[in-house]
From TrEMBL:
<dbReference type="InterPro" id="IPR021763">
    <property type="entry name" value="DUF3326"/>
</dbReference>
<dbReference type="Pfam" id="PF11805">
    <property type="entry name" value="DUF3326"/>
</dbReference>
<protein>
    <submittedName>
        <fullName>DUF3326 domain-containing protein</fullName>
    </submittedName>
</protein>
Length: 356
């Protein structure tokens, strides 16, 4: 539509972003962006708030690997009214803890009307192991990724699942100092990097929306808990926000020219007008791919991470702003057709073009 504005919001997971590095703490940014953007494409790390969520009709919930494929021009996104969500449990989850998650899923069915299939349990414990890189970013591994993929295939083939919510048992023994810093709003999410690995595997293999909720025993109460970390300590499960996000997550469509023909219900990367990223986290494949298009790259200085990979250092043309509030002002100007440069007081004179 004329004047429509489509924005991709990227806040990479597991790198300690000051905003977006905690459960759902970037949702206020998305809500505000939603008032000036016709469409926002972002990933579960931004929108998952454990038991808290905020559904918005103009926001597309796109898993990180799928977002990278979209940015590369390999996949398109097809909006849907509702997905049938398959629930996948790690065999390592204790019966009582699994029941807590099942009851959360049943609550989402009963209270929110979400469509869920019957669930599966992996045929082996997934064996999640957590890792930290020298930069401080977190990642992880699975001992039995093949078991994860077999369970996902069963949900797709037998239950006709259109999206998959994965619940894996994460270690309770997490570095005490790192966990304490995170709960105080000062550290890196120790789980996030491993969560991304899990969902990436399923999306890469099956080209289907997927997201992950870790299964953990509740932590002891902490009276000094940071508000940013509080969403993760409301109960026994992080599952509700994942189920809500997947319920209307767009389906992935291959843009292979041999099989794809233009369809009005499928959007591709050429629809993207703006990409917003933390200023020091510009090295991801999604942003790098979209920087090769006509999209305006906006970097936010006041969202520091453990990384220092800048647009300038990569030779990417970008508009640096101080805050997300400033970014929203830039988008409002773009939507109105106002020259963005006029949001700042200094203004150069028009010059005659060279006669050469």
């Amino acid at each position: 539509m004329p004047g429509a504005l489509t924005t991709v919001l990227i806040i990479p997971t597991g790198i300690g972003a000051a905003m977006g590095g905690y459960a759902g703490d970037a949702i206020p940014v998305v809500r505000a962006l939603g008032q000036v953007c016709d469409q926002i494409i972002t990933h579960p790390n931004v929108l998952n708030g454990a038991q808290l969520y905020w559904s918005m009709p103009n926001v597309a919930y796109v898993e990180g690997y799928g977002l990278d494929q979209f940015a590369a021009g390999a996949w398109g996104l097809k909006r849907v009214s509702a997905n049938r969500i398959g629930l996948l449990f790690d065999q390592a989850i204790e019966p009582d803890l699994r029941l807590r998650h099942l009851q959360a899923a049943e609550a989402c069915r009963a209270t929110l009307g979400l469509k869920l299939t019957d669930y599966v349990i992996t045929d082996q414990p997934l064996g999640v192991e957590l890792r930290t890189s020298p930069s401080g970013a977190t990642w992880g591994t699975l001992k039995h990724p093949d078991s994860l993929l077999r369970a996902a295939a069963k949900l797709i083939e037998t239950a006709q699942a259109q999206a998959i919510a994965i619940v894996a048992r994460f270690p309770d023994q997490i570095d005490a100092q790192a966990l304490s810093a995170y709960r105080q709003g000062q550290g890196v999410d120790p789980l996030a990097g491993a969560e991304a690995i899990i969902s990436h595997l399923v999306v890469r293999e099956f080209q289907i929306p997927a997201a992950h909720a870790p299964a953990l025993m509740p932590l002891p109460l902490d009276a000094t808990l940071s508000p940013q970390a509080a969403a993760e300590e409301l109960g026994y499960t992080f599952l509700p926000s994942v189920l809500v996000g997947l319920s209307q997550a767009p389906q992935f469509v291959s843009l292979d020219p041999q099989v794809f023909h233009d369809r009005p219900d499928v959007i591709d990367r050429q629809c993207v007008d703006v990409v917003i990223s933390p200023a020091g986290a510009c090295g991801g494949p999604g942003l790098l791919a979209l920087s090769q298009t006509q999209a305006q790259i906006i970097t936010v200085v006041d969202n520091p991470t453990t990384l220092n990979v800048t647009a300038e250092g990569l030779g990417i043309k970008a508009l640096a702003v101080q805050s997300y509030a400033e970014a929203i002002g830039v988008l409002a100007a773009m939507k109105a057709g106002v020259a963005v440069s006029r949001l700042w007081p200094r203004m150069g004179r028009l010059q005659e073009l060279s006669k050469e």
